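Posted in: Protein Modeling Q&A

I'm a second-year student putting together a small comparison for a lab meeting, and my supervisor asked me to include a predicted structure for Dynein light chain. I've never done this before, so apologies if this is the wrong subforum. The sequence is pasted below exactly as I got it from our records. If anyone can share the structure token output, I'd also love a short note on what stands out.
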Amino acid sequence: MEGAEEELERRSKFLNSLIEKKKKAVEQKQQHDRMNVRVRASDMPLSLQNHAFKTARNILDSMPTSSKLDSKRLALSLKKEFDSTYGPAWHCIVGTSFGSYVTHSLGGFLYFSIDKVYVLLFKTAVEPLD
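Accepted answer (user: helix_wrangler)
Welcome! Here is the predicted structure, written out as tokens:
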């Protein structure tokens, strides 16, 4: 009987963890909808993705609404933020229409849209010079 109780407890914990994951996913989706963000492709932890979304949203909101999008400013700001927070060799491409083919470090790739702007943020490996 003791084995059955342990199994029931194990299954209960497992189901509760699934419910929590689902709640977090729903909250994440709602947050993305509020920021008008859509992930197009990603190989990046959620915490870094959220950092990129919030940074991009703050930069876009700080730009005058009457002026044209300053894509260079957005790209430079995201790159500098990620370089200073997560180490060097981050690259950022921002625009409304572009193509790309890049090699990135594992866990360091994010392609998303925010409003009508597309952002490609990726990290490359840094190798010391001999």
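A couple of things worth pointing out for your meeting: The longest strand covers residues 37-43. Residues 2-35 form the longest helix (34 residues).
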